[in-house]
Design goal:
Helices cover about 35% and strands about 35% of the residues. The chain is α+β, with helices and mostly antiparallel strands and about 140 residues long. The protein has a three-stranded antiparallel β-sheet. It has a three-stranded mixed β-sheet with strand order 4-5-6, with helices on one face. Helix 2 packs across helix 3. It is elongated and about 55 Å long.
């Protein structure tokens, strides 16, 4: 199975004084504003790193649900947040790290089975595979 999803961006102006908008095929984002101030300051709008964080949190959560299913478990809840680190290195910017924070409620799970599933999801999620960054995970199993 091959799936393709699309998004588009439009930009006008220079790096610091320009502005742009991002739209997605699904229509979830329609002309969402982004610019230098939304990426490097606290301006209103989104930025590429925030969108990558959202994609990674969502992808990881689904991958964890799949891993739990393979182990005969089902989550009552999975809550994941992702923090993407953008750093200036060697004169350019790179995404160097993503930290995932996970809190899950999984009836019948042991700490060991939970951690095994979470680590498999961390390395197996398609967004994790895409990123050339250090990916770390703090996983908490609620009882």
């Amino acid at each position: 199975m091959v799936m393709k999803r699309t998004a588009s961006a439009a930009w006008s102006g220079g790096l610091k004084d320009g502005k742009g908008n991002i739209s997605t095929q699904s229509g979830v984002l329609v002309n969402a504003q982004y610019g230098f101030n939304t990426r490097f300051e606290d301006g209103p709008g989104t930025n590429p790193e925030e969108l990558i964080a959202a994609a990674h949190a969502g992808c990881f959560s689904m991958a964890l649900a799949a891993q739990l299913g393979e182990a005969g478990m089902a989550a009552e809840s999975i809550k994941t947040s992702a923090a993407v680190t953008l750093e200036k290195i060697d004169g350019g910017f790179s995404i160097t790290a993503v930290h995932l924070d996970l809190v899950a409620r999984i009836p019948g799970a042991t700490q060991a089975s939970f951690e095994a599933a979470a680590n498999k999801a961390k390395t197996g999620c398609p967004v994790s595979k895409l990123l050339n960054a250090k990916i770390t995970l703090d996983a908490k199993l609620e009882t």
